[in-house]
Amino acid sequence: MSIAVLGGGAFGTALAVALGRKRAVTLWARDVTGLHDTRQSPRLPGVTLPDAVTVTGDLNEAASRDTLLLSVPMQQLSTLLDRIATPLDGHALVACCKGIDLAEGVGPSALIARHQPGAVPAVLTGPSFAGDIARGLPTALTLACGDEPRGRALQEQLSTPVLRLYRSDDMIGAELGGALKNVIAIACGACIGAGLGDSARAALMTRGFAEMMRLSARLGARPETLTGLSGLGDLTLTCTSDGSRNYRFGLALGRGEDFDPSVTVEGAATARAAARLSTELDLPLPVCSVVADLSQGRLTVRQAMDTLLSRPLKDE
After folding, report:
1. 289 in a known ligand binding site
2. What residues does sn-glycerol 3-phosphate bind to (predicted)?
3. Boundary residue ending a domain (133, 148, 169)
C-alpha cells in the first residue's frame, strides 16, 4: 500500500525520512523548492531525505495514495481537508497533529469523518520530537484506529526497526492526550521560566494530568489510554524538555520575553478550546483555564499562580 505525508513541516518531514528508509513515500509540501534542490529541510538541519522519498507540490496527486499521514497544524487541518478535491473512500487518513479545532470544538478524527466520511480515520501520537525521529533514534508511539483490521495493517505499514507503534482503538483518548498535554506543558514552562521551581512544576504536571483524565473521561475516552504513551508519556516529555515548542512558549511567558510568532504553539489554541469545554460541560479545569488566559495576555504568571493557589482546599 502506498504512503504520502501531507505537510512539509518538521514532524511531517521527519516521518517521511523515517518511513523512506524502509519504503517509497511521497511528501507533499506547500513550498517544495528547497526540498527539491537540496533534499534537506531548514526545519531539520543536517537531515537528508532518503532517495525513496518523492517530493511534490501537487496536493491531489499526493492524496491519491492509500495511506495519508496528515501532518499539518491542528488549526489548519480543516482547510487541508477542504482542499482535497476527490472523495477518499477506503483510504486511511492518519492524523499526526495534536489539538482541538477551535472552530468546531472537536479533535482530528472527527474532522476527518466530517470531511471524508468514506475514509478510515486514525491517530498517530505520543512522546516524539521530530529531530529524534529523523535521526533514527528509538521512538514509541500510539496508533489509534477504530477499525481493527485496518489498525493492524497500519501498525505493520508504519512501524520501522526504531519506530515502534502500539495499537489502540480509543481514538478519542489518544487524540485528547496528545492535545491536552500541550496545555500543561505551557503551564510548566511558565512555572520554570518564572523561577517557581521543580516542585511547583511537578504539582502542575500532576494536577494537569488529573484534568486531562477528567475531560477525556467525560468525552468518552478510556482511562488506560491516558496513562499510556499518548497521555502520560507525551506529558512527561513535553513538560520537561526545551525541545517542546509549547514548553518553550511557557518559558518565554514566565520570563516576560517575546516568543517567535512564526512558531506553531498548538497548546495555546487547545487551552482556549478546553476552557470553552469546561464551561459547556460544567467541568472544572483550572489549569487549562488559567493557561488560556495566560496565553492571551489576560493574566500575568503571578496572577495565574495566585488563582491556582487560592482555590479551595480539597481531597485528592
Report:
1. no
2. 98, 126, 128, 181, 234, 244-246
3. 169
Q: Tell me the per-residue pLDDT of 241-272, one tens digit each, with 9 for 90 and over.
A: 999 999 999 999 999 999 999 999 999 999 99
pLDDT of 1 reads 85
- Domain extent, residue 151, equals 3-169
Other CB atoms closer than 10 Å to residue 136's CB: what's the count? 15
Asked if the structure places residue 186 within a domain, the reply is yes
For residue 219, what are the CA distances in angstroms to 41, 90, 146, 212, 229? 38, 27, 16, 11, 19
Look at residues 150, 169, 188 and tell me which one is the last residue of a structural domain. 169
Residue 8 has pLDDT above 90, yes or no: yes
Q: Is 181 flagged in the annotation as binding? A: yes
Average pLDDT over residues 57-74: 97
181 is catalytic: yes
The yes-or-no verdict on residue 34 having pLDDT over 80 is no
Instruction: Name beta bridge partners: 164.
Output: 140
Establish if 315 belongs to a structural domain: no
User: Is 41 annotated as ligand-binding?
Assistant: no
- CA separation for the pair 39, 55 (Å, rounded): 9
Q: What angle do CA 121, 125, 129 make, to 5 degrees?
A: 140
Per annotation, catalytic residue among 181, 201, 248, 272: 181
Do residues 314 and 300 make contact, with C-beta atoms less than 8 angstroms apart?
no
| Single pTM value for the model | 0.96
Task: Consult the annotation and say whether 98 binds a ligand.
Answer: yes
Identify whether 127 is part of a domain. Answer: yes
Say whether pLDDT at 111 is over 80.
Answer: yes
The three three-digit cell numbers of residue 234, written as one number? 507525551
**pLDDT at residue number 216:** 97
Do 116 and 247 fall within a single domain?
no
Is residue 274 scored above 80 in pLDDT? yes
Q: Do both 67 and 149 map to the same domain?
A: yes
Residue 183 and residue 164 in one domain: no
Domain membership flag for residue 174:
no
246 annotated ligand binder: yes
